[in-house]
Amino acid sequence: MDKDRIALQLYTVRDRTSQDFVGTLRQVSEIGYKAVEFAGYGGVPVEELRRTLDELGLRAVAAHTPFEQLTQKTDQTLEELHLLGCEYAVVPAVREDLRDSVEKVRALAQEFNRIGQMCRADGLAFAYHNHSFEFRQLDGATMYETLAAETDPALVQLELDVYWAQYGGFDPIDLAIRYSGRLPLIHVKDMSAGDNPTDVPVGEGVLPWDRILSACAQAGAQWYIVEMDNPRDSIEDVRTSLRNLEAMPDPQPV
């Protein structure tokens, strides 16, 4: 698989960035990553982060940006994304009180449309990242289905986390087919075997990556972003994921 299409969600190495953000970026680059997705800046000025990215030849694909930050500090947030060279602003999750009824999800969708319009006007794209709660039934439909139906595809993209979709009981391959054209960013982490699965490095679990990657390529995926919520050894786990992805055939549309 083409290394230039693989990025790392820096949340995975949060135990390292919390101690030395710039040094961790150097480690990530030394492992072989060419791109990253931010999830906070660790108190480091974004100007310094951009200088470090440029020095290391790293590209900032996107940043996970809290919903409240995008709505309450819009100008500052978008300026920071531009300084880092990001293409996407991604909301990683929303509070339960904003999504505990169909009416609230529909209202959230309209707010996403508004944010997406602001991002587009500022030269950025906007996306929403799923966990598993979006796949619970909510008055006859899932939150994911309602959000997708109520948002404008030209304004709101979807960052599909294949592990959390599978964990929530939905086949990520089926989702990739269903939402083709709206999935530029794919979060990749594997699932352990057994009745109580957890996330493991890509290629170390039970998910069918050949079929998943092909379906995502068919759906128009641009980036495959390594992420783990529960790494055992964060640096070694992201190294393993990258090596296993590199050994896989470059995904091609079927």
Structure description:
- The protein is an alpha/beta fold.
- The chain has one domain: Divalent-metal-dependent TIM barrel enzymes (TIM Barrel, Alpha-Beta Barrel).
- The chain has eleven helices and twelve strands.
- The protein has helices spanning 14-17, 21-31, 46-56, 67-72, 74-84, 102-121, 143-150, 162-167, 172-178, 209-218, 234-246, and strands at residues 6-9, 35-38, 59-64, 88-91, 125-129, 137-138, 141-142, 157-161, 185-188, 190-191, 199-200, 223-226.
- The protein has an eight-stranded parallel barrel with strand order 1-2-3-4-5-8-9-12. A two-stranded antiparallel sheet has the order 6-7.
- Helix 6 (102-121) packs across helix 7.
- The protein is globular, with a radius of gyration of 17 Å.
- The two termini are 16 Å apart.
- The model has no long low-confidence stretch (mean pLDDT 97).
Number of helices: 11
Shape: globular
What is the CATH H-level superfamily?
Divalent-metal-dependent TIM barrel enzymes
SSE order, one letter for each helix or strand: EHHEHEHHEHEEEHEHHEEEHEH
The CATH topology corresponds to TIM Barrel
> Can you give the helix content as a percent range?
40-55%
Cross-sheet strand order for the largest sheet: 1-2-3-4-5-8-9-12
Q: Please report the first level of CATH classification, the CATH class.
A: Alpha Beta
Ranges where pLDDT stays below 50 over 5 or more residues in a row are: none
Write the CATH architecture name: Alpha-Beta Barrel
Query: Which structural class fits the helix and strand makeup?
Result: alpha/beta
Count up the domains.
Answer: 1
